[in-house]
Amino acid sequence: MDELLGRKTPHSAPAEQAVIGSMLIDSRCIPEVLEKLKPDEFYIQLNRDIYETIYAMFSYSMAIDPVTVLGQMKVRGVYTDNCEEYLAEIMRITPTAANVLEYAAIVRDRALLRRLGEAADEINSMVYEGSGEAEAMLEAAERKIYALRQGRNVGGLIPVASVVQNVFDNLSEAASSGNAIPGLPTGLPDLDRVTLGLNKSELILIAARPGMGKTSIALNMALHAAMNEHQTVAIFSLEMSREQLVTRLLSRAALVPSQNLLTGQLTDQQWREISNAAQALSATDIRIDDNPTLTVSDMNAQCRRVAHLGLVVIDYLQLMQSAGSGHSWSNESRTQAVSDISRMLKIMAKELNVPVICLSQLSRANESRQDKRPMLSDLRESGAIEQDADVVIGLYRDGYYNKESENPNLAEAIILKNRKGQTGTVELLWLPEYTSFSLYEKRREDEY
User: Among residues 122, 142, 239, 427, which one is catalytic?
Assistant: First the structure.
Protein backbone atom coordinates (compact mmCIF):
# COMPACT_ATOMS: atom_id res chain seq x y z
CA MET A 1 0.00 0.00 0.00
CA ASP A 2 2.76 2.45 0.94
CA GLU A 3 4.57 1.71 -2.30
CA LEU A 4 1.36 2.31 -4.29
CA LEU A 5 0.92 5.68 -2.58
CA GLY A 6 4.54 6.58 -3.22
CA ARG A 7 5.40 6.43 0.47
CA LYS A 8 8.52 4.82 1.82
CA THR A 9 8.01 2.59 4.84
CA PRO A 10 10.31 3.79 7.65
CA HIS A 11 13.20 1.38 8.16
CA SER A 12 17.00 1.27 8.07
CA ALA A 13 18.53 -1.80 6.42
CA PRO A 14 22.11 -0.78 7.36
CA ALA A 15 21.16 -0.38 11.05
CA GLU A 16 19.39 -3.76 11.11
CA GLN A 17 22.42 -5.44 9.53
CA ALA A 18 24.82 -3.66 11.89
CA VAL A 19 22.90 -4.91 14.94
CA ILE A 20 23.09 -8.52 13.76
CA GLY A 21 26.73 -8.15 12.68
CA SER A 22 27.70 -6.74 16.08
CA MET A 23 26.04 -9.66 17.90
CA LEU A 24 27.94 -12.15 15.76
CA ILE A 25 31.26 -10.30 16.05
CA ASP A 26 31.06 -9.93 19.84
CA SER A 27 28.54 -12.11 21.68
CA ARG A 28 29.10 -10.11 24.89
CA CYS A 29 26.82 -7.39 23.56
CA ILE A 30 23.89 -9.78 23.03
CA PRO A 31 22.22 -9.36 26.48
CA GLU A 32 22.18 -5.55 26.11
CA VAL A 33 20.72 -5.72 22.61
CA LEU A 34 18.01 -8.22 23.60
CA GLU A 35 16.88 -5.82 26.33
CA LYS A 36 16.46 -3.05 23.76
CA LEU A 37 15.01 -4.79 20.71
CA LYS A 38 12.20 -7.23 20.01
CA PRO A 39 12.23 -9.38 16.83
CA ASP A 40 9.15 -7.70 15.34
CA GLU A 41 10.98 -4.36 15.33
CA PHE A 42 13.05 -5.58 12.38
CA TYR A 43 11.45 -4.68 9.04
CA ILE A 44 13.39 -6.94 6.66
CA GLN A 45 12.13 -10.50 7.07
CA LEU A 46 15.52 -12.21 6.78
CA ASN A 47 16.99 -9.91 9.42
CA ARG A 48 14.03 -10.68 11.66
CA ASP A 49 14.50 -14.44 11.17
CA ILE A 50 18.18 -14.21 12.10
CA TYR A 51 17.47 -12.04 15.14
CA GLU A 52 14.67 -14.37 16.35
CA THR A 53 17.06 -17.30 16.04
CA ILE A 54 19.73 -15.53 18.12
CA TYR A 55 17.02 -14.47 20.60
CA ALA A 56 15.87 -18.08 21.09
CA MET A 57 19.43 -19.46 21.27
CA PHE A 58 20.39 -16.98 23.98
CA SER A 59 17.28 -17.89 25.99
CA TYR A 60 18.34 -21.52 26.03
CA SER A 61 22.00 -20.68 26.82
CA MET A 62 23.30 -21.98 23.48
CA ALA A 63 26.65 -20.91 22.02
CA ILE A 64 26.16 -18.16 19.42
CA ASP A 65 28.38 -17.73 16.38
CA PRO A 66 27.76 -17.71 12.61
CA VAL A 67 27.97 -21.51 12.32
CA THR A 68 25.59 -22.30 15.21
CA VAL A 69 23.14 -19.60 14.10
CA LEU A 70 22.99 -21.06 10.57
CA GLY A 71 22.42 -24.51 12.10
CA GLN A 72 19.55 -23.28 14.22
CA MET A 73 18.00 -21.44 11.28
CA LYS A 74 17.84 -24.81 9.50
CA VAL A 75 16.19 -26.36 12.58
CA ARG A 76 13.65 -23.51 12.72
CA GLY A 77 12.89 -23.78 9.01
CA VAL A 78 13.96 -20.23 8.10
CA TYR A 79 17.23 -21.11 6.31
CA THR A 80 17.55 -20.15 2.64
CA ASP A 81 20.38 -20.76 0.16
CA ASN A 82 21.82 -17.25 0.47
CA CYS A 83 21.84 -17.15 4.32
CA GLU A 84 25.49 -18.18 4.69
CA GLU A 85 26.66 -15.59 2.18
CA TYR A 86 24.37 -12.94 3.75
CA LEU A 87 25.78 -13.49 7.25
CA ALA A 88 29.34 -13.31 5.97
CA GLU A 89 28.57 -10.04 4.16
CA ILE A 90 26.92 -8.56 7.30
CA MET A 91 29.98 -9.36 9.41
CA ARG A 92 32.26 -7.90 6.75
CA ILE A 93 30.47 -4.54 6.53
CA THR A 94 29.91 -4.09 10.30
CA PRO A 95 32.78 -1.85 11.41
CA THR A 96 32.65 -2.53 15.16
CA ALA A 97 30.36 -3.89 17.87
CA ALA A 98 31.13 -0.89 20.09
CA ASN A 99 28.25 1.16 18.59
CA VAL A 100 25.65 -1.61 18.71
CA LEU A 101 23.27 0.28 21.05
CA GLU A 102 23.22 3.22 18.65
CA TYR A 103 22.33 0.86 15.80
CA ALA A 104 19.62 -0.72 17.98
CA ALA A 105 18.18 2.72 18.78
CA ILE A 106 17.83 3.45 15.05
CA VAL A 107 16.04 0.14 14.43
CA ARG A 108 13.68 0.78 17.35
CA ASP A 109 12.96 4.36 16.23
CA ARG A 110 12.01 3.22 12.71
CA ALA A 111 9.80 0.46 14.13
CA LEU A 112 7.96 3.00 16.29
CA LEU A 113 7.42 5.23 13.26
CA ARG A 114 5.95 2.27 11.33
CA ARG A 115 3.58 1.43 14.18
CA LEU A 116 2.56 5.05 14.56
CA GLY A 117 1.75 5.14 10.84
CA GLU A 118 -0.27 1.92 11.13
CA ALA A 119 -2.19 3.28 14.12
CA ALA A 120 -2.91 6.52 12.27
CA ASP A 121 -4.20 4.56 9.26
CA GLU A 122 -6.45 2.45 11.50
CA ILE A 123 -7.81 5.55 13.27
CA ASN A 124 -8.44 7.21 9.90
CA SER A 125 -10.30 4.16 8.60
CA MET A 126 -12.37 3.97 11.78
CA VAL A 127 -13.36 7.65 11.52
CA TYR A 128 -14.24 7.66 7.82
CA GLU A 129 -16.10 4.36 7.96
CA GLY A 130 -18.22 5.78 10.80
CA SER A 131 -17.96 2.53 12.73
CA GLY A 132 -19.13 3.89 16.10
CA GLU A 133 -19.74 6.91 18.30
CA ALA A 134 -17.08 9.62 18.56
CA GLU A 135 -16.45 8.86 22.25
CA ALA A 136 -15.84 5.17 21.51
CA MET A 137 -13.49 6.08 18.63
CA LEU A 138 -11.54 8.46 20.86
CA GLU A 139 -11.18 5.70 23.47
CA ALA A 140 -9.95 3.25 20.80
CA ALA A 141 -7.49 5.83 19.42
CA GLU A 142 -6.11 6.58 22.89
CA ARG A 143 -5.71 2.85 23.52
CA LYS A 144 -3.69 2.42 20.32
CA ILE A 145 -1.38 5.35 21.09
CA TYR A 146 -0.93 4.24 24.71
CA ALA A 147 0.02 0.76 23.54
CA LEU A 148 2.72 2.32 21.35
CA ARG A 149 4.06 4.26 24.34
CA GLN A 150 4.25 0.99 26.27
CA GLY A 151 6.09 -0.66 23.38
CA ARG A 152 3.47 -3.22 22.47
CA ASN A 153 0.80 -3.88 19.87
CA VAL A 154 -2.95 -3.90 20.45
CA GLY A 155 -4.35 -7.31 19.61
CA GLY A 156 -3.14 -9.48 16.77
CA LEU A 157 -1.97 -13.06 16.69
CA ILE A 158 1.38 -13.51 18.44
CA PRO A 159 3.60 -16.54 17.70
CA VAL A 160 3.84 -18.87 20.69
CA ALA A 161 7.66 -18.63 20.54
CA SER A 162 7.40 -14.94 21.47
CA VAL A 163 5.04 -15.72 24.34
CA VAL A 164 7.37 -18.47 25.60
CA GLN A 165 10.19 -15.92 25.55
CA ASN A 166 8.08 -13.49 27.60
CA VAL A 167 7.38 -16.23 30.16
CA PHE A 168 11.11 -17.03 30.37
CA ASP A 169 11.89 -13.33 30.83
CA ASN A 170 9.33 -13.12 33.67
CA LEU A 171 10.79 -16.25 35.29
CA SER A 172 14.31 -14.86 35.07
CA GLU A 173 13.18 -11.54 36.54
CA ALA A 174 11.38 -13.29 39.41
CA ALA A 175 14.38 -15.54 40.12
CA SER A 176 16.87 -12.67 40.11
CA SER A 177 14.72 -10.39 42.29
CA GLY A 178 14.90 -12.77 45.23
CA ASN A 179 11.35 -11.84 46.31
CA ALA A 180 9.23 -14.56 47.88
CA ILE A 181 6.17 -13.35 45.95
CA PRO A 182 5.92 -12.29 42.29
CA GLY A 183 3.52 -9.39 42.88
CA LEU A 184 3.58 -6.04 44.66
CA PRO A 185 3.54 -6.58 48.46
CA THR A 186 0.44 -5.36 50.31
CA GLY A 187 2.23 -4.70 53.60
CA LEU A 188 0.28 -7.63 55.09
CA PRO A 189 2.63 -10.63 54.63
CA ASP A 190 0.05 -13.25 55.71
CA LEU A 191 -2.24 -12.02 52.94
CA ASP A 192 0.64 -11.94 50.43
CA ARG A 193 1.43 -15.59 51.11
CA VAL A 194 -2.04 -16.58 49.88
CA THR A 195 -2.55 -14.10 47.03
CA LEU A 196 1.16 -13.87 46.01
CA GLY A 197 0.89 -10.09 46.22
CA LEU A 198 -0.79 -7.66 43.83
CA ASN A 199 0.15 -8.86 40.37
CA LYS A 200 0.28 -6.93 37.12
CA SER A 201 -2.92 -6.89 35.01
CA GLU A 202 -4.97 -8.35 37.89
CA LEU A 203 -8.36 -7.01 39.01
CA ILE A 204 -8.53 -7.42 42.79
CA LEU A 205 -11.97 -6.98 44.33
CA ILE A 206 -12.29 -6.20 48.06
CA ALA A 207 -15.91 -6.71 49.13
CA ALA A 208 -17.63 -6.08 52.47
CA ARG A 209 -20.63 -4.50 54.17
CA PRO A 210 -20.41 -0.76 54.95
CA GLY A 211 -18.15 0.07 57.90
CA MET A 212 -16.18 -3.17 57.71
CA GLY A 213 -12.93 -1.50 56.56
CA LYS A 214 -12.81 -1.77 52.76
CA THR A 215 -11.36 1.70 52.25
CA SER A 216 -8.99 1.23 55.17
CA ILE A 217 -7.37 -1.96 53.87
CA ALA A 218 -7.11 -0.49 50.34
CA LEU A 219 -5.37 2.62 51.72
CA ASN A 220 -3.09 0.30 53.72
CA MET A 221 -2.01 -1.33 50.47
CA ALA A 222 -1.70 1.98 48.62
CA LEU A 223 0.43 3.52 51.39
CA HIS A 224 2.75 0.49 51.52
CA ALA A 225 3.14 0.44 47.72
CA ALA A 226 4.02 4.16 47.64
CA MET A 227 6.17 4.42 50.77
CA ASN A 228 7.90 1.06 50.96
CA GLU A 229 7.92 -0.08 47.32
CA HIS A 230 8.29 3.44 45.81
CA GLN A 231 5.45 2.87 43.34
CA THR A 232 3.26 5.53 41.72
CA VAL A 233 -0.29 4.98 42.99
CA ALA A 234 -3.52 6.40 41.53
CA ILE A 235 -6.54 6.54 43.87
CA PHE A 236 -10.03 7.27 42.52
CA SER A 237 -12.38 8.08 45.39
CA LEU A 238 -16.03 8.34 44.42
CA GLU A 239 -17.20 8.54 48.05
CA MET A 240 -14.65 10.37 50.20
CA SER A 241 -12.91 13.68 49.51
CA ARG A 242 -9.17 14.03 48.94
CA GLU A 243 -8.81 15.61 52.38
CA GLN A 244 -10.61 12.75 54.12
CA LEU A 245 -8.39 10.20 52.39
CA VAL A 246 -5.18 12.05 53.22
CA THR A 247 -6.30 12.41 56.84
CA ARG A 248 -6.62 8.62 56.99
CA LEU A 249 -3.25 8.14 55.33
CA LEU A 250 -1.61 10.52 57.81
CA SER A 251 -3.25 8.75 60.76
CA ARG A 252 -1.90 5.40 59.56
CA ALA A 253 1.56 6.69 58.68
CA ALA A 254 1.98 8.62 61.96
CA LEU A 255 0.11 6.11 64.15
CA VAL A 256 -1.92 8.98 65.58
CA PRO A 257 -5.64 8.26 66.22
CA SER A 258 -7.77 9.64 63.40
CA GLN A 259 -10.17 11.15 65.95
CA ASN A 260 -7.36 13.39 67.20
CA LEU A 261 -6.61 14.48 63.64
CA LEU A 262 -10.26 15.36 63.03
CA THR A 263 -10.64 17.36 66.26
CA GLY A 264 -7.14 18.88 66.25
CA GLN A 265 -6.61 17.71 69.85
CA LEU A 266 -2.95 16.74 69.46
CA THR A 267 -0.10 16.56 71.94
CA ASP A 268 3.30 18.03 71.09
CA GLN A 269 4.60 14.53 70.39
CA GLN A 270 1.66 13.82 68.08
CA TRP A 271 2.28 17.07 66.22
CA ARG A 272 5.86 15.93 65.63
CA GLU A 273 4.66 12.50 64.46
CA ILE A 274 2.15 14.09 62.08
CA SER A 275 4.79 16.50 60.75
CA ASN A 276 7.20 13.64 60.04
CA ALA A 277 4.44 11.57 58.44
CA ALA A 278 3.36 14.53 56.29
CA GLN A 279 6.92 14.94 54.99
CA ALA A 280 7.19 11.22 54.21
CA LEU A 281 3.76 11.16 52.56
CA SER A 282 4.54 14.26 50.48
CA ALA A 283 7.66 12.51 49.16
CA THR A 284 5.56 9.65 47.73
CA ASP A 285 3.87 9.64 44.32
CA ILE A 286 0.23 9.11 45.33
CA ARG A 287 -2.32 10.83 43.09
CA ILE A 288 -5.96 11.25 44.12
CA ASP A 289 -9.07 12.09 42.08
CA ASP A 290 -12.30 12.53 44.09
CA ASN A 291 -14.63 13.31 41.18
CA PRO A 292 -17.80 11.27 41.96
CA THR A 293 -18.96 11.14 38.32
CA LEU A 294 -15.93 9.31 36.88
CA THR A 295 -16.34 6.52 34.35
CA VAL A 296 -13.86 3.73 33.66
CA SER A 297 -12.87 5.51 30.44
CA ASP A 298 -12.09 8.67 32.42
CA MET A 299 -9.92 6.72 34.86
CA ASN A 300 -8.18 4.83 32.07
CA ALA A 301 -7.42 8.04 30.18
CA GLN A 302 -5.89 9.62 33.29
CA CYS A 303 -3.85 6.52 34.15
CA ARG A 304 -2.42 6.36 30.63
CA ARG A 305 -0.84 9.75 31.21
CA VAL A 306 0.86 8.69 34.47
CA ALA A 307 4.45 7.55 33.95
CA HIS A 308 5.61 4.42 35.80
CA LEU A 309 2.18 3.70 37.29
CA GLY A 310 2.35 0.82 39.79
CA LEU A 311 -1.13 0.49 41.35
CA VAL A 312 -4.70 1.75 40.90
CA VAL A 313 -7.28 1.88 43.71
CA ILE A 314 -11.00 2.57 43.08
CA ASP A 315 -13.46 3.29 45.91
CA TYR A 316 -16.03 1.96 45.06
CA LEU A 317 -17.63 -0.04 42.23
CA GLN A 318 -21.34 0.61 42.82
CA LEU A 319 -20.85 4.40 42.74
CA MET A 320 -19.33 4.31 39.27
CA GLN A 321 -21.16 5.26 36.11
CA SER A 322 -20.80 3.55 32.78
CA ALA A 323 -19.86 5.92 29.97
CA GLY A 324 -22.66 8.22 28.90
CA SER A 325 -25.07 7.05 31.60
CA GLY A 326 -27.06 8.94 34.16
CA HIS A 327 -28.32 7.82 37.56
CA SER A 328 -31.79 6.54 36.68
CA TRP A 329 -31.39 2.78 36.84
CA SER A 330 -33.81 -0.09 36.98
CA ASN A 331 -32.47 -3.08 38.91
CA GLU A 332 -31.93 -5.02 35.69
CA SER A 333 -30.17 -2.21 33.85
CA ARG A 334 -28.04 -1.45 36.92
CA THR A 335 -26.91 -5.07 37.16
CA GLN A 336 -25.94 -4.97 33.48
CA ALA A 337 -24.16 -1.64 33.96
CA VAL A 338 -22.12 -2.96 36.90
CA SER A 339 -21.23 -6.03 34.82
CA ASP A 340 -20.07 -3.75 32.00
CA ILE A 341 -18.04 -1.63 34.43
CA SER A 342 -16.33 -4.66 35.98
CA ARG A 343 -15.47 -5.96 32.53
CA MET A 344 -14.00 -2.59 31.54
CA LEU A 345 -11.99 -2.54 34.79
CA LYS A 346 -10.46 -5.90 33.92
CA ILE A 347 -9.60 -4.65 30.43
CA MET A 348 -8.07 -1.53 32.01
CA ALA A 349 -5.89 -3.65 34.33
CA LYS A 350 -4.63 -5.67 31.35
CA GLU A 351 -3.99 -2.62 29.19
CA LEU A 352 -2.18 -0.63 31.90
CA ASN A 353 -0.42 -3.83 33.05
CA VAL A 354 -0.81 -2.89 36.71
CA PRO A 355 -2.89 -4.33 39.57
CA VAL A 356 -6.26 -2.61 39.95
CA ILE A 357 -7.90 -2.80 43.38
CA CYS A 358 -11.63 -2.11 43.26
CA LEU A 359 -13.83 -1.96 46.36
CA SER A 360 -17.37 -3.33 46.27
CA GLN A 361 -20.39 -3.28 48.55
CA LEU A 362 -22.00 -6.56 49.56
CA SER A 363 -25.75 -7.03 49.49
CA ARG A 364 -27.72 -7.55 52.71
CA ALA A 365 -28.04 -11.28 51.95
CA ASN A 366 -25.48 -12.16 54.61
CA GLU A 367 -27.48 -10.29 57.29
CA SER A 368 -30.16 -12.98 57.26
CA ARG A 369 -27.69 -15.85 57.70
CA GLN A 370 -26.45 -17.13 61.03
CA ASP A 371 -22.88 -17.14 59.67
CA LYS A 372 -22.51 -13.62 58.31
CA ARG A 373 -19.15 -14.19 56.65
CA PRO A 374 -19.26 -12.94 53.03
CA MET A 375 -19.78 -15.26 50.07
CA LEU A 376 -19.30 -14.61 46.34
CA SER A 377 -23.06 -14.61 45.89
CA ASP A 378 -23.34 -11.62 48.25
CA LEU A 379 -21.77 -9.23 45.73
CA ARG A 380 -24.38 -6.56 45.23
CA GLU A 381 -25.71 -6.33 41.66
CA SER A 382 -23.01 -8.90 41.08
CA GLY A 383 -23.63 -9.57 37.42
CA ALA A 384 -20.24 -10.75 36.13
CA ILE A 385 -18.07 -9.17 38.84
CA GLU A 386 -16.87 -12.45 40.28
CA GLN A 387 -16.06 -13.71 36.77
CA ASP A 388 -13.99 -10.65 35.84
CA ALA A 389 -12.05 -10.40 39.11
CA ASP A 390 -8.82 -12.38 39.47
CA VAL A 391 -8.91 -12.15 43.26
CA VAL A 392 -11.94 -11.52 45.49
CA ILE A 393 -11.32 -10.73 49.16
CA GLY A 394 -14.25 -10.53 51.59
CA LEU A 395 -13.75 -8.68 54.89
CA TYR A 396 -15.42 -9.82 58.11
CA ARG A 397 -15.22 -8.68 61.74
CA ASP A 398 -17.21 -10.56 64.35
CA GLY A 399 -17.04 -7.47 66.59
CA TYR A 400 -19.08 -5.57 63.98
CA TYR A 401 -22.09 -7.84 64.57
CA ASN A 402 -21.46 -9.14 68.08
CA LYS A 403 -20.82 -6.42 70.66
CA GLU A 404 -19.89 -9.09 73.21
CA SER A 405 -17.26 -10.69 70.98
CA GLU A 406 -14.27 -11.84 73.01
CA ASN A 407 -11.92 -10.47 70.36
CA PRO A 408 -13.75 -7.55 68.72
CA ASN A 409 -10.70 -6.35 66.75
CA LEU A 410 -9.99 -9.68 65.08
CA ALA A 411 -10.64 -9.28 61.35
CA GLU A 412 -10.80 -11.92 58.66
CA ALA A 413 -9.72 -11.40 55.05
CA ILE A 414 -11.51 -14.26 53.33
CA ILE A 415 -10.04 -15.12 49.92
CA LEU A 416 -13.24 -16.06 48.07
CA LYS A 417 -11.58 -16.39 44.68
CA ASN A 418 -7.97 -16.59 43.58
CA ARG A 419 -7.07 -17.34 39.96
CA LYS A 420 -3.55 -18.23 41.06
CA GLY A 421 -4.92 -21.06 43.15
CA GLN A 422 -5.16 -20.92 46.91
CA THR A 423 -8.20 -19.63 48.81
CA GLY A 424 -8.71 -19.45 52.56
CA THR A 425 -8.93 -17.05 55.49
CA VAL A 426 -6.20 -14.71 56.71
CA GLU A 427 -6.50 -13.25 60.21
CA LEU A 428 -5.72 -9.54 60.61
CA LEU A 429 -5.90 -7.06 63.46
CA TRP A 430 -8.34 -4.16 63.06
CA LEU A 431 -6.98 -0.93 64.54
CA PRO A 432 -10.11 1.23 64.90
CA GLU A 433 -8.25 4.24 66.31
CA TYR A 434 -6.18 4.44 63.11
CA THR A 435 -8.87 3.00 60.79
CA SER A 436 -6.25 0.52 59.65
CA PHE A 437 -5.25 -3.13 59.60
CA SER A 438 -2.13 -4.87 60.88
CA LEU A 439 -0.70 -8.36 61.30
CA TYR A 440 -2.74 -10.23 63.88
CA GLU A 441 -0.15 -12.69 65.20
CA LYS A 442 2.58 -10.08 65.56
CA ARG A 443 0.44 -7.67 67.54
CA ARG A 444 -0.94 -10.42 69.76
CA GLU A 445 2.56 -11.61 70.66
CA ASP A 446 3.62 -8.04 71.44
CA GLU A 447 0.89 -7.78 74.08
CA TYR A 448 2.37 -10.59 76.19
Answer: 239
